[in-house]
Amino acid sequence: MSNESTQANNLLPANIAALAAYSSAKSEMLSGTTWLNANESPYAKTIQLSVEDLNRYPDPQPQLVIDRYAAYAELESENVLMTRGADEGIELLVRTYCESAKDSIALFLPTYGMYKVTADTHNVAINALTQAQLLNGSVDEIVDAVGSSKLVFICNPNNPTGSLTPLDKVTAIATALADKALVIVDEAYIEFCPEQSATKLINQFSNVVVLRTLSKAFALAGLRTGFTLAQAATLAPIRKVIAPYPVSGVVASIAAQAIAPDAITSMRRQVIILNALKAKLVQWLSESPAVLKILTGEGNFVTLKLADKNYFKIALEQGLVMRAFTLYGESDWLRISIGSEQELKQVKIWLDGLALPTASAISAQQEVS
After folding, report:
1. Which of 202, 150, 207, 203 is closest to 173 using CA atoms?
2. Global model pTM greater than 0.70
């Protein structure tokens, strides 16, 4: 390491020097031909775009996008803040509501990794609870475990397990934590089970915040667009903290088209197709001796436990890229995004190939006997 690098590192705060960066699906630098590792939609969009006004600063909160998303979420425009992906919403909440080196956030592991990375970045402590506590514990037990944490993150449906916390339980937790903590419901995958959305709680609870994204069902992962939904008074201090021009004019134009009424209708049709394809994939997985356990849940993905973690390497050799996970201390878990029918056929080919050695062994044993 050069002297310049050493000097620069000496300037780092301790929490940043010790920070383990979030490893996204794309940061793993894998190569392949079939990509089912990032929970992306297989549907590409056709967008009409004008770039004639790039010499001007954009609207900080583009009104057409805000109004359309408010209508979609059945809220008022004052309840909507547009952000650079839901990740910026996470960062803004931690930065606005948590005091460095004093406050903590509660999260339920295993869950989305950016909650922890964001808290670590701001020197905010982690109150690490479990999905089992969230799903099986009583509300009193959960509130006791949350303790003095300022923010409570509930990823619903949860990534990577797909588990869903019932809306009545979210309601009870929000009620018990009124004036004590913000309950942040991350609904990145809610379009795949919209009846479970917590947006209907926003008018009732000032401590309920919902995070949304256009990256999943809306098929715009490359746009990096999200929304933070809450009561106007809850969003007011966040509006003080957010960057002055967080949304480019180009992004606003694309987002407005993506959430127009006819585009929302198209998205819902695609969700029906993807949910049907997911059911077919789950059936294939349940019939495969290569799979020991399946976490079906909700969302456009399935997480499973492999009988042999080397099966993942075989998939990569075939050009099939899925997301390897370490869950519950075990490194033989895999998350498969729901792609197109053709892409999922590649998964079936991979699964069938893994079953061949078992079939051959049975045949050989029969010949010997």
Report:
1. 207
2. yes
CA–CA distance, 86 with 221 (Å, rounded to integer): 11
Residues 290 and 332: beta-carbon distance below 8 Å = no
* Separation in Å, CA 118 to CA 20, 94, 112: 11, 7, 11
Report yes or no: 39 and 299 within 8 Å, Cβ to Cβ. Answer: yes
Give the tokens for residue 151.
């923010």
Residue type, 70: A
For 287-294, what is the mean pLDDT?
97
Q: Per DSSP, what are the bridge partners of residue 83?
A: 226
In degrees, to the nearest 5, what angle opens at C-alpha 113 toward C-alphas 279 and 105?
Answer: 120
> Following DSSP, what letter does each residue of 206-220 receive, concatenated?
TTEEEEEESSSTTS-
pLDDT at 365: 41
Token pair of 97 as six digits: 């509501």
Q: Using omega within 30 degrees of 0 as the cis cutoff, is the peptide bond preceding 166 cis?
A: no
Residue 280 has pLDDT above 90, yes or no: yes
A 10 A CB-CB count for 56 gives: 8
Residue tagged 């010790």 (tokens): 18
**The two three-digit tokens of residue 171, written as one number:** 């309601």
**What are residue 129's DSSP bridge partners?**
108
CA–CA gap between residue 177 and residue 168 (Å, rounded): 14
| Alpha-carbon span 146 to 12, nearest angstrom | 30
The CA-CA-CA angle for residues 265, 340, 156, to 5°, reads 65
- Dihedral sign for Cα 80, 109, 91, 114, please: negative
Q: Do 106 and 78 form a contact (C-beta atoms < 8 A)?
A: no
At residue 182, φ and ψ (nearest 5 deg) are -85, 135
- 160 preceded by a cis bond (ω within 30 of 0): yes
What is the C-alpha radius of gyration for the chain, rounded to an integer number of angstroms? 22
